[in-house]
Amino acid sequence: MMESAIPLHLETTRSRHKRVPSDYVPPYPSFVARYKPAVNRVVMAYFGLQYRGAAPAAVAGALARIAERFAAADGPSYWDRAQYVDQAGFSNVISVGYWSDVASFDAWLGPAREDWTGKDCEGVGTFIEALRPTVGRFETLFSSLGRPEGVAVIGDGMSGEVQEHAYWGGMRDRIPLSQTDEMAPGGRPELVRHGARLIVKAHDNLCLIRSGQDWSDTEASERKLYLEDVEPVLHEGMDFLRDEGVGIGCYANRYMRVLDADGAPTEKSYGQSWWKSLAALERWAESHPTHVRIFGAAMKYLSTLGPAARLRLYHEVTVAAAEEQFFEYLNCHPKTGMLAAVETVGA
Ligand code: HEM
Prior knowledge:
Elements: E1 33-34, E2 43-52, H1 58-71, E3 78-85, E4 90-99, H2 102-117, E5 125-131, E6 138-142, E7 157-158, H3 170-174, E8 190-194, E9 197-201, E10 206-214, H4 220-244, E11 250-259, E12 265-275, H5 278-287, H6 289-305, E13 312-320, E14 325-330
Antiparallel strand pairs: 1-7, 2-4, 2-5, 3-4, 3-11, 5-14, 6-13, 8-9, 9-14, 10-12, 10-13, 11-12
Helix pairs in contact: 4-6, 5-6
């Protein structure tokens, strides 16, 4: 039995319609994370650090400290870590924590923030980018069951096969708020200086995507297909968003490689980007030659292989209200994350 991606308790009388008719059947299965109805908000908090060249001594200490804080009382239910080299040549290591209990996050954040972005870290820039959306403001999608990632890990389990996917507009149709709201962006990002700390106040309906790829279970021809045919195209798309994204509403893009507990790269990656609007993200996904190509290839491939596919794809997309966002940077270069969206920085 096909389910709606929108859970029953968030269904409401529609003023806006889905892109597909009620008897639409997608060509391959996909699943979404489910949460207990008592969960009305989650937190996704990105704690980043950056440096140029060889890692300064302070890096290991900072990474160990944030991991310790994550493990302490009121820390996240789940976190992971990934890294990438940005357009300015800086290495960035980002530890992402997920909470389903916002009160815990609020109790936890104060001292963690002081530690992370409240004091100089010897040649290392630090930042926090956090959202605390209501459950009506985000969606997830998984091409297979058995290995939740990101915000899905803090869920109560996964759905059965959902209807709203495998067509342009499926992402929007999975976000409960889309039943009644266009989710149009409001206003422009602004910079607020608190001494050396730079805070970006963005705007209503800012959008975040984390889109993950896991090729660790692939073998032989599937691995070759992914690494030789799909990944290079994905890489090109990620570079485009990183270098030229601002013109099309992508404030910042990071193509991250997930790290294991020892800090070694795994066979998992994700693209993470901040967007002016869900509409801008939709436009890129359905029109940029790189994504159109990998979308088409993946649709064909998933439809052919079905549950036998070993490549795992997932994403989570959030459209956050202005008061659900927090961006803070200390000693970071001016093109870091949402700083790139505010022109006055670095002037
Ligand atoms: C190997 C990498 C990727 C592949 C194979 C891929 C393929 C796909 C496929 C098959 C879908 C349709 C999913 C469904 O509804 O069943 C999709 C949707 C989407 N992808 Fe990707 N994708 C990849 C990476 C990315 C990245 C890194 C981003 C952005 C950062 C992205 C943005 C999107 C968006 C926004 C949609 C939703 C479109 C909509 O529903 O309107 N994708 N992708």
